[in-house]
Amino acid sequence: MPTKAKVAVVVDSTVALPPEIAKTAGLFVVPIDLVFGKTIYRDDELNPKEFYAMLQASPDTPTTSAPSPSRYLDAFTEASDQAESVICLTLASHLSASYGNAIQAIKLANQRLPNIPIKLLDTQTAAGAQGFIALEAARSAQRGDPLDEVMRKAQAIVSKVRLVAFLETLYHVWKSGRA
What is the mean pLDDT of the chain? Predict the structure, then answer.
């Protein structure tokens, strides 16, 4: 049986990394939900082309939903098969319920996986900026750093990244009621 890694890195899919990069980095990606009217898709079920086609065609503005605690727990369980500990990096807590749901999942994991230390980091950002944090944590984990060191390196990147977003149009923001 192969030796387990010291640390596995779990992220939510708002990390916005291409799947092949996330896989190469060894990230365990927990998908968010995309809600179009009454239909819910895990965001790993739609590629960007499909999503944007649906966005143009749908009379409803899509919304998102944070991964459930059980979805995080599933990722922690899968990660624990390959590593001795887990770090979970979430979308900014002020933008989503992801962080709170991950806290609930850690409480459940403490019962189901009592010998697996799990640390949680609010990345305080999203998308590409969150991706930089995840990639640094993954590099640290792949070097064999212990959990506290992976956490320290990820925290150091949090203070160095900023998300800047430009919208081609404010139409969807207006349509969602956010403007």
Answer: 91
Task: Give residue-wise pLDDT tens across range 5-35.
Answer: 999 999 999 998 998 999 999 999 999 998 8
Q: What is the DSSP letter of 14?
A: G
**CB burial of residue 54 (10 Å; 0-12, 13-18, 19+):** middle
113 burial (CB, 10 Å; 0-12 / 13-18 / 19+) is middle
What is d(CA 65, CA 124) in angstroms, rounded to the nearest whole number? 18
Residues 52-73 have pLDDT tens digits of: 888 888 887 888 889 999 999 9
pTM of the shown model: 0.90
CA distance 66 to 46: 16
b/e map of 20-46 (b: 16 or more CB within 10 Å)? eebeebbbbbbbbbbebeeeebebeee
Q: Whole-angstrom Cα distance, residue 88 to residue 113?
A: 15
Place of tokens 């995309």: 34
Q: Are 93 and 122 in contact (CB under 8 A)?
A: yes
Neighbours of 16 (CB within 10 A): 15
